[in-house]
Amino acid sequence: MTAQRRGFQAVVLGTGAADGIPQPFCDCTTCTDARRQGYSRFGGGVLIDDTLLIDAPSSTSAAAARAGVDLRGVRVIAVTHAHHDHWDPAILLHRQWILDRGEPLPPLTLIGPPTVLETARGWLPPGSDVTLVPAVAGATHEVAGMRLRVVPSTHGRTVVGRVSDPWADEAVLFEVRGGDASLLYAADTGLPDDTLLAAVTGAGYDTVLLELTFGNHPGVGPLPTPGHLAHDTFCETLAMLRRVGAVTENTDVIAVHLGHHNPPQSQLSRDLASWGARLVDDGTVLEVGTGRRRARCRLVTGGARSGKSRYAERIAQAGDRPVTYIATGYPASPDDAEWAARIELHRHRRPASWRTVESADPAATITATPDGGTVIVDCLTLWLTRLVDDVAGWTDPIAAESAVEDALGTFTDALRTALERDVEILLVTNEVGSGVVPDHAAGRLFRDLLGTVNATLARECDTTVLLVAGQPLELERNRHVDLG
User: Fold this and answer.
1) What pLDDT score does 292 carry?
2) Spans of the chain below 50 pLDDT
3) Which residues are catalytic?
4) Cα–Cα distance between 342 and 326 in angstroms, integer?
5) Which of 123, 401, 429, 465 would disulfide-bridge 89, Cβ 3.0–4.6 Å?
6) What is the C-alpha separation between 253 and 293, in angstroms, rounded?
7) Cβ distance 241 to 3 under 8 Å?
8) How many Cβ atoms from other residues are within 10 Å of residue 344's Cβ?
9) Residue-wise over 137-167: b if at least 16 C-beta within 10 A, else e?
């Protein structure tokens, strides 16, 4: 019998950057959408097992109230740096007022960079029960059965000609481990340097809260700075963390410290999903260490030119694994210039490091893929076409149906075996059957067979994504639909 994993609870009090979403003086697309949809993001830090508070800006009290939690049990406040959206020393006075009424609270330790500790001293009375501890990169602190480790940050990076920010220069990140669970709080930071990467190599975090202050949303505020992440550097940071084993297939990556430079929430959520990350709302409760993992088998479907192949390729590139691309269509023919041009377009788009296999038997290639690899099958539609061709099934529906049934059995067996060996799989297909009924019997047969193929393989996948006009829509998963 497998022992149950022991984890801890993390309440994400706030997910917004310094000026929040919506920014009160802004009418950009993102801020306008937030007001229209009725959502907001503000700072607030993270509360872990009611005893450890990471970052405490002025919005912490309101954030805790919205989340339905109090801070009476907090024994340690760990602050990354002294910027106002991470630290407001007035929280120490608010706590002292409760002690002055004679109500008991546990002694408090404040861990932070020099400026954080310096500002704290002015808010503490003589004989205070608050212990001030410098946050030194590499140091480990015990917190109610958990271990808090200080990790270096690159928030202090500047560009040539720009004056450095001493508070940003002091910034650190925090790693929390408790039971079998682990979390990295990475806000604020820029692209990792060698020192940061060395500190997290092999960490294999269950959860990573990674800042995404700037997006790709033009015309809003200042340009991204090296001490924060934008969409391109967020993806680059994820790739670096994956290479050193800090982020794994099982890591729940959550974007935090979100500014209105990002696109509206619905678009940002889709972007993050394609990178292997996600959004959560302010006040979200995370059960860290419960084994949430990234989907390792996806069915990507859509109409012609909907962007399904590009979407699958993007997922594979984000994963930083060796990729095998299975092209199931007929080879290029000098008699069909259009088909040859489409094949060449796909070849040109694929990275040179990918291995391409042209095969009508994707199951065999999936089975032969080494552990830890990624396979793209592009696409099931062409695989089905060749399968029916091989048995002359266009005029013999019984032969076609029998061939498809046998091939699907082999295919699903290959998928299940590969997933047990940690092979990530992306299946690209076409969505048919929603339009005009085909005039010819062969067309109707193909429509029905592809519908069966898609529905059968979707049940084997963790996720099914429908591409509409280039926009990915994740479909609700249900393994119990009657396909009869």
Assistant:
1) 52
2) 1-3, 219-220, 479-484
3) 346
4) 15
5) 123
6) 10
7) no
8) 11
9) eeeebebbebebbbbbbbbbbeeeeeeebeb
Neighbours of 57 (CB within 10 A): 23
The two three-digit tokens of residue 193, written as one number: 């340097």
- Helix/strand/coil (H/E/C) assignment for every residue in the chain: CCCCCCCEEEEECCCECCCCECCCCCCCHHHHHHHHHCCCECCCCEEECCCEEECECCCHHHHHHHHCCCCCCCCEEECCCCCCCCECCHHHHHHHHHHHCCCCCCCEEEEECHHHHHHHHCCCCCCCCEEEEECCCCCEEEECCEEEEEEECCCCCCCCCCCCCHHHHCCEEEEEEECCEEEEEECCCCCCCHHHHHHHCCCCCCEEEEECCCCCCCCCCCCCCCCCCCHHHHHHHHHHHHHCCCCCCCCEEEEECECCCCCCHHHHHHHHHHHCCECCCCCEEEEECCCCCCCCEEEEEECCCCCHHHHHHHHHHHHCCCEEEEECCCCCCCCCHHHHHHHHHHHHHCCCCCEEEECCCHHHHHHHCCCCCEEEEECHHHHHHHHHHHCCCCCCHHHHHHHHHHHHHHHHHHHHHHHHCCCEEEEECCCCCCCCCCCCHHHHHHHHHHHHHHHHHHCCCCEEEEEECCEEEEECCCCCCCCC
pLDDT in tens, 86-138: 999 999 999 999 999 999 999 999 999 999 999 999 999 999 999 999 999 99
Q: What is the pTM of this model?
A: 0.69
Q: Which two tokens stand for residue 26?
A: 């802004």
Domains in the chain, CATH or no CATH each:
8-288 (3.60.15.10), 297-475 (3.40.50.300)
Q: Could you tell me the strand order of the sheet in which 323-327 lies? A: 355-358, 323-327, 374-378, 424-428, 297-302, 463-468, 471-475
Q: CA–CA separation, 480 vs 484, rounded Å?
A: 12
Note whether 91 and 54 are within 8 A (CB): no
* Strand-strand pairing, 146-152 and 140-143: antiparallel
Q: Six-digit token pair at 280?
A: 């959560």
Instruction: Tell me the CA distances in angstroms from 279 to 267, 268, 292, one per residue in order.
Output: 11, 8, 15
Q: What is the pLDDT of residues 182-206, one digit of tens each?
A: 999 999 999 999 999 999 999 999 9
Return d(Cα 7, Cα 49) in angstroms, integer.
10
- The closest of 191, 183, 179, 175 to 135, measured between CA atoms, is 175
The count of C-alpha atoms lying within 13 angstroms of the C-alpha of 78, restricted to the half-sphere facing its C-beta, is 29
* Whole-angstrom distance, CA of residue 296 vs CA of residue 249: 8
